[in-house]
Write a structure and sequence with these properties.
single chain
């Protein structure tokens, strides 16, 4: 079955847990080797029979050769039997089918009758290998892993082929769950725990493969194909979700934050896949590959400048709270925080870390307050620029034409924010919160940070500079992909895209930012592909601009090595 967790519950003798005795299993290895050569020849013969180009055949043969070599090594280490067993022979046949399909993929697709026929054969053999292994008493760690990896590769190649058909790139989503789960398990080891056998898991895996085979039908209507993808993806998400819930329940409490981060990563990938489909993924790649590097370099410089100005704003904010930061120290810490924020789910882990690292000069509450106030001031500055630009473009003729529903929604949101701000000011003025409450501490910290002599003018200048830099960086990314934005759009539309990144449900704002860009930037005349490419370029340049944060990590590691 094409599920990463299935082998943990098969009852296979994982204790052959270590390495098999090579003398004992040498007969099995000696039988396996000639079979691999037969499989290689069969795959090449099949692809030649349908007239695939020799380049595609050789590429698939090279991939199959690597897989067979790896399988032979794994067999010698994790198959503690002298007999090879019929199960592994069946899995080899299915691997040959995967190689055939890979050659078709390398050739650009097509040949649907041959693809569907061999896929049905492979699907029919699925489950036979497990039955034979149990019947012959030859279940092993190698057999379980071999079966799982071949199934996963089978699903992935079918999904990539389906991506060339009526469903489009959205179909690729059906081939990724096993690999996404495996990647997550590298970061969160508790996902490697055992799960109970579940019949519904096996059924959904079979339905996944049936759906992928059905998507190879060239005359399948696009709406039907997309519906198949959505329903199958929902079933897979439910199946994996049940297993993740069980693994989380069996893990200790430390797994909860990891589970949240995993969920954010999955949400990010799902949103990106959907938006990619809407924007036309192939067109996006073409645009990105032809982007102007000089505009991208300018965006990178502007984003680095934005980080420097924000770091200085943090230094100014923290000083009245008793946290004395040098300019260089604040800049290094801020670059590191930006690097963490752009690479980890939530977008605030880096900020929390810099608050924790500066708590030795004051209480942790003051350190957190300085970070919260600094980030809040930055968002208020961006909101003020957006509000002014929105009102200007709304009433100016010849500017941006806002859709009536969107304009009404934005106007209502701005009025609601203004009313909430006024109510908060009146509350603080006439009914001050208790000094020990969180609101009281926040108000006190904000007053101390902003009311100190010379602080407010510095905050305004630094915030204005940081806001202009980040908006200009996004505009440079738009120019890089051949879609320059008018000035009104830079100040009135881009902030909306950036505000979408504040929702803490994705990794580094990815997905949410692209979705907002595809929805909003066409107002400024961009195509959906250009909007996606602009947002993706901005995300990549933000990551590059935050790389100086690695210098702080390296410096600290060297310091620790020298100290010890």
């Amino acid at each position: 079955m094409t599920v990463a967790r299935e082998s943990t519950a098969t009852g296979a003798p994982h204790a052959a847990a270590g390495h098999s005795d090579t003398a004992e299993n040498r007969p099995a290895v000696s039988r396996f080797t000639p079979l691999t050569l037969i499989c290689l020849g069969a795959a090449m013969a099949g692809t030649l029979a349908i007239g695939l180009p020799i380049e595609a055949i050789l590429a698939a043969a090279a991939a199959l050769t690597l897989a067979l070599v790896g399988s032979t090594v794994a067999l010698s280490r994790h198959h503690p039997f002298a007999r090879l067993g019929g199960a592994n022979v069946v899995t080899l046949i299915r691997l040959t089918v995967v190689a055939f399909l890979l050659a078709v993929l390398f050739a650009g697709g097509g040949h649907p009758v041959a693809v569907i026929a061999v896929s049905i054969v492979a699907l029919s053999l699925d489950g036979v290998d497990g039955y034979l292994a149990r019947r012959q008493g030859l279940s092993s760690r190698f057999g379980a892993s071999f079966d799982m990896e071949v199934d996963s590769a089978f699903a992935l190649v079918l999904a990539l082929l389906a991506g060339l058909g009526p469903a489009g790139p959205l179909a690729i989503l059906l081939g990724l769950p096993r690999y996404l789960f495996g990647a997550a398990a590298l970061a969160y080891p508790w996902l490697n725990g055992p799960v109970r056998p579940r019949y519904s898991r096996k059924v959904i895996c079979v339905l996944q493969l049936i759906a992928l085979i059905a998507l190879q039908i060239p005359f399948l209507p696009a709406p039907v194909a997309i519906a198949i993808v959505i329903v199958t993806a929902a079933l897979l998400a439910w199946s994996f979700g049940v297993d993740i819930h069980e693994l989380r329940r069996n893990a200790d409490d430390s797994g909860r934050p990891a589970l949240i981060r995993l969920g954010q990563a999955i949400i990010t990938v799902a949103i990106l896949v959907v938006v990619w489909q809407v924007a036309g993924g192939v067109d996006v790649l073409d645009i990105l590959f032809t982007a102007n590097p000089w505009w991208l370099l300018a965006a990178c410089v502007l984003l680095a400048t934005h980080t420097v100005l924000s770091a200085l704003r943090w230094r100014v904010t923290a000083a009245p709270l008793g946290i004395d930061l040098s300019g260089g120290h604040a800049i290094r810490e801020y670059f590191l925080a930006q690097l963490v924020n752009t690479t980890l789910p939530g977008g605030v882990v880096g900020d929390a870390a810099r608050a924790a690292r500066t708590r030795h000069q004051a209480t942790l509450g003051r350190s957190v307050g300085a970070v919260v106030v600094e980030r809040g001031v930055g968002q208020v500055a961006l909101l003020a620029v957006f509000a002014a630009a929105f009102l200007a473009t709304l009433f100016a003729s010849g500017g941006i034409t806002w859709p009536p529903a969107l304009a009404a929604g934005i106007s209502a949101a701005l009025l609601a924010l203004a009313a909430a701000g006024l109510i908060l000011i009146l509350r603080v003025r006439f009914a001050p919160p208790a000094s020990g409450s969180w609101l009281g501490r926040l108000v006190d910290g904000t007053r101390r940070s902003l009311a100190a002599p010379g602080v407010l003018p510095a905050q305004v200048l630094l915030s204005a500079g940081a806001t202009v830099c980040i908006l200009a960086a996004f505009a440079c990314c738009a120019a890089a992909v051949g879609a320059p934005l008018p000035l009104g759009a830079v100040f009135a539309v881009i902030p909306l895209v950036l505000f979408a990144m504040l929702l803490p449900i994705s990794v580094g704002g990815w997905g949410m930012r692209e979705g907002a860009a595809v929805a909003l930037l066409p107002i400024a005349g961009l195509t959906t592909a250009q909007a996606f490419a602009t947002s993706a370029a901005f995300g990549l340049m933000a990551l590059v601009a935050s790389l100086p944060g690695l210098a702080l990590v390296w410096t600290r590691r060297r310091t620790l090595e020298t100290t010890t």
